[in-house]
Target: Flavin-containing monooxygenase
Amino acid sequence: YSPSLTNLLNTMAPSLSPLRSHHVAVIGAGAAGLVAARELRREGHSVVVFERQKQVGGTWIYTDHVEPDPLSVDPTRPVVHSSVYATLRTNLPRECMGYRDFPFVVRSGGDQRRFPSHGEVLAYLQEFAKEFKIEEVIRFETAVERVAPATEGGSGKWRVESTETEKRVRRDEVYDAVVVCNGHYIEPRLAEIPGISSWPGKEMHSHNYRTPEPFKDQVVVLIGNSASAVDISRDIAGHAKEVHVAGRSNPADTYIKQPGYINLWMHSMIERVNKDGSVVFQNGQTILVDVIMHCTGYKYHFPFLETNGSVTVDDNRVGPLYKHVFPPELAPWLSFIGIPWQVVPFPLFELQSKWIAGVLSGRIMLPSKDDMMEDIKSLYATLEAQGIQKRYTHRMGIAQFEYNDWLASQCGCSETEQWRKEMYLTTGVRKKAHPETYRDEWEDHHLVSQAYQDFSFYTLTCNM
Ligand code: FAD
Model:
C-alpha cells in the first residue's frame, strides 16, 4: 500500500487548490455512516444520511424480532437488520474498538466492563451522533430503494430514490456523490449440506438467533468456526440437551468434548444428513438432530445499487474497488465504507471516511483510473498466488494496520497507535485460547494505561 508520488505531493500541499464542497448522500446510520457523515461535514460537504430504521446504531440496535424465514433466504421477506443476540458482549476491548478521536470509555451508569454488552455500544454510537450533531442530517425511516447514475452520459452525479416508510413519501433526488454504508451482516451465507432437502429438522441462520430458551432439551448442530459459533454454542449449551459444532476448517477426524461442558462437542464438517433426522459428520459420528444453525457469515449485498456492471459481487468479492473503497470507473463519486472484515471496524471506518471526504473536496488526489485498476489487479494476483479464494479478498486481519497507516498517510493523520495494534493481537490470542474467560480476565494492563493516556487528550478537548 505504498502511496504514489502524486498522492504524497497532494497530501503535502493541500492548500494549493481551493477545496470543493459537494452534496453527498450517505446510505446507513450505523457506525460507518455516522463517522462518514461527520468527516464529510468537517470537510465542508453537505450531507444527507438515509436510514431505514428509527434510530442510529445499525446492527447494534438489539431487537427481539427475527425474520419470518429462519434462514433469511426469501428475497421478499421483511428484513430485520440486527444480528445481535441478547447476551452478546463485544469481542474487542472497548479501548481498542472505539473511534480514534472519540474514545469508547466507561460512562457513569453504563456497563463498566471492558468487553461490554451490545447496549453499551449502542449508547456509545448514540453519544457520538449527539456530540457531532449528526441526527440533524439523518432522514430516519427512509429506505434507499435505487441508486443509479443520474444521466446516461456519465456526469458523475447519482439519482437516489428513497421512500419514507411511515409517511409513504417517495423522493427522487440527485446527489454529487454517494457513500454506501449499508452494513454487511444481513444477507446470510449458508453451508451446502448433502441431503438437506429431505432432512426433517429445523434449519436457521445465526442472524435469527436471539435467546437460548427455545432450544431447551433439543439437540443442536451449529456450523461455523467464527465468533458467533463460538459464543452461541456456549449460550445454548446451558439449555439444550446437546450442542455439536461442525467446522469446515476442522481436520476430518475432529471429535472433541469441550472442557468445562457436559454437552458440547466439536466436530469436523457435516458429511450428509438423512431423512430420519440424523446428521453424519466427516468424523464418522451420527447424531439425531432437531436444529441446524448456520453460523456461516454473510454476503455483501447492495440491492439498491445500479452501476451497469461497474461494481459486482462475485463470490463475496466486491469489485473492482481501489483500496476496498472506490470503484475506479465511478470514483470518487461512489464509495464504500466498511467492506474489510476481520478488522477493528470503527477506527478503520473513520480513516476511510476521512479519505473519501478529502478526495471529494480535492484535498487528496486519487491516482488515474488505470493506476487504480493496476493496484486492484496486483492485489488479486497476490491473493491468487497465495491460493486465497475470492471470498477472502476483503479479509484483513493483521494487514489492516498497514492498510490503516496507508489511509492515515493519505489523510495526513497519525498512524494507528501501537497500543491498539498490540491490544488487538493480544486479545486475538486470548480469545482463541480462552473463549470462555477472555472477556473478564486479561494481562494487557499496560496497554490499557497507554490507551487512557492517549484518551485524556480527546476526553479533555471534547469537554472543553
Ligand atoms: P450496520 O451497523 O449494519 O449499519 C448499516 C445501516 O444501514 C443500518 O442502520 C441499516 O438500517 C442501514 N441501511 C441498510 N440498507 C439501507 C437502505 N437501503 N436504506 C437506508 N438505510 C439502510 N464490531 C466490533 O467492533 N466489535 C464487536 O464486538 C463486534 N461484534 C459483532 C457481533 C455481531 C453479531 C455482528 C453482526 C457484528 C459485530 N461487529 C463487531 C461488527 C459490526 O458490524 C461493526 O462494528 C459495525 O457496527 C458495522 O457498522 P456499519 O455501519 O458498517 O453497518
